[in-house]
Write a structure and sequence with these properties.
single chain; D-Maltodextrin-Binding Protein, domain 2; 12 helices
C-alpha cells in the first residue's frame, strides 16, 4: 500500500501487523480549509469535518488543525467524505464545513475562495505522511524481492525528478489529469516532498506515534520499530545502490 503511518498504526492497533518500509514524504502536506463563512474556531464549533477515512492522514491532519484552533474532536462531527477532491466538493456543497486537503486540491480550494483556516504544510511538521507499506510476514519472507522493488522505485523517482518531459505524461495518465495547470501543481508537489533516500525519518515517525493517542487512537505500541522497518532501504544505502543511482541521475541533495 501507499499509506501514511497514521493508517498503519491504526490498523496495527486493531490486530494488524504492517510495516512502513520506505517513505515518500516525511512532512505533513495538508492545509485545513473551511467554508468562507467559517473564519474562526467559534464558527467551526458544532460543524462537520470531512476526512478521507477514519484513522487516515487526513483524519490526523484535521485533529492537528483543531488543536491549533483550541478545539477538540468532541467539538465537531467527523465524517468520511473521500479524497481531497471529494472533500473540496463537499465543502462547496455544504455537506461539511471544513477539511484538510493536499495538492492539487489545496491550490484549487484557494482559487475557489475557501478559507485556509490552518496551514499545516507551512509549519513543515515532521510527519510520515506517505509510505510504502507491507505486511510483516511478507516483509520477512521477501526481503530480496523488496530490495529490487525499492531500487526500481528509487530509480523511477530519480528519473521523474530529473526528466520532467518524461514524468509529466505518466502523472497525467495515472492520475487522469487533463488540466496542464493541475499537472504542474502535482509535479511540483512530487519534487518538493520526495525524500531522496526514501528513508523514513525518526522524528517524522515519532511525531505520529506520540500524537495519535491524544486524538483517541489506540496503539498497539509507541515503539517506532513496531510500525516502521527501514532494514531494506538501509541495505540499499549501505551497499552503495542509492549513491550509485543518485550519481547516475545527477542528484546530490
Amino acid at each position: 500500500m501507499h499509506v501514511g503511518l497514521s493508517g498503519v498504526a491504526d490498523i496495527n492497533g486493531k490486530g494488524g501487523d504492517l510495516r512502513v518500509i520506505a517513505s515518500l514524504s516525511n512532512v505533513m502536506r495538508f492545509v485545513f480549509f473551511s467554508d468562507p463563512t467559517v473564519r474562526s474556531a467559534a464558527d467551526l464549533k458544532g460543524k462537520a469535518i470531512g476526512v478521507s477515512s477514519f484513522g487516515a492522514e487526513s483524519d490526523s491532519a484535521a485533529s492537528l488543525a483543531l488543536r491549533q484552533l483550541g478545539l477538540s474532536r468532541n467539538d465537531v462531527t467527523f465524517k468520511e467524505a473521500g479524497g481531497s477532491p471529494q472533500r473540496l466538493s463537499a465543502i462547496k456543497s455544504g455537506a461539511i464545513a471544513a477539511a484538510a486537503m493536499n495538492e492539487p486540491a489545496a491550490t484549487q480550494a484557494q482559487e475557489q475562495g475557501l478559507h485556509p483556516l490552518v496551514d499545516l504544510f507551512a509549519a513543515r511538521t515532521p510527519w510520515l505522511f506517505t509510505g510504502l507499506t507491507v505486511d510483516k510476514r511478507y516483509l520477512d519472507d521477501n526481503r530480496a524481492l523488496l530490495r529490487r522493488f525499492l531500487s526500481a522505485t528509487l530509480e523511477g523517482a530519480y528519473r521523474g525528478l530529473t526528466d520532467e518531459p518524461w514524468a509529466k505524461p505518466i502523472l497525467a495518465r495515472e492520475y487522469k489529469i487533463a488540466d496542464p495547470k493541475v499537472l504542474d501543481i502535482v509535479f511540483a508537489d512530487f519534487k518538493a516532498q520526495m525524500p531522496l533516500t526514501m528513508l523514513p525519518t525518526r522524528e517524522a515517525s515519532e511525531n505520529v506515534l506520540a500524537l495519535l493517542p491524544t486524538f483517541g487512537v489506540k496503539l498497539k505500541s509507541q515503539r517506532v520499530e513496531d510500525h516502521v522497518d527501514t532494514g531494506v532501504i538501509d541495505s540499499l544505502i549501505a551497499d552503495g545502490t542509492v549513491a550509485a543511482l543518485q550519481q547516475r541521475y545527477g542528484l546530490n541533495r
